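Example record

One chain of 284 residues, shown exactly as stored in the release files.
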Amino acid sequence: WYISSGINAEYGGIESICTGLQMNDSLEKIVLQGNKIGRQGGILLSATLQVNSTLKQLNIADTDQTNESLIALTTVLLDNSSIKKLDVSNPLLVSEQEETAIHFSKMLSVNYGLTEIHLCKHGMKDFGVSQLAESLKDNKTLLYLNLGCNKIAEDGARALSGLLKCNTPLKKLSLTSNRIGNNGLVALSEALATRNTILSHLWINNNCITETGLCALAAGLRTNSTLTNIYLWGNDLGNTACNAFDQLMEGNKPRILQHNTDILPYVVDGVTYLAETGQFLFSH
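Predicted structure tokens for this chain:
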């Protein structure tokens, strides 16, 4: 494992790392998160991945990646199958055209190495996630897709619902801090209730959802038997939704176990409420 801090592309730090990676045949993980290696550093790393075939985990979140450096990375990953886990969250994207989402989509349609990818804070909208969902229908290896803190709304959630109906290998889907709303969650719930038997973890915290959507999810969970972990705090938890999830968590064989969610039912004067447990902080 290799964790770097304080690396700056201007002072040759990233060049030295890339030179070492080209000769290294044992290092499997590198974490550069928070180091401002920028466009130059990202392009150097992409070139290195054309040579290095042992690195399995790469974290370059919060490193000021640009459209150009991310496109270079996706181009390399069309052929590189050694990278299994990739975090490219929070890049510096100046365009609203979602070019990087399109390139990641094309890459994921053919890549057979990645099992986990984090695309948080990419400014991704419904068009971008729709492209991603369509491409992932052909993907046979991705298990964890993190799309937190984007701009995904109802139509994007519908596209992801279509992906879930294809029963791909995807086990974990994070939509934390988007805006899928009730209709988006209803679409996802319908896929979970009728077609999907693979997804085990779903994050929908802070998504402008009210009890209409949450009750649809609760109903879907009564049919679905594979979704075990659900995180939903930060939405509008009305009385009906509180009662619905209380029923899912009660009894000797609860549908949702307390340690697999971020809510906990409690009763005051005969009325059921849901409290936040903080479990979300340890769920990713």
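Notes: The first strand starts at residue 2 and ends at 3.
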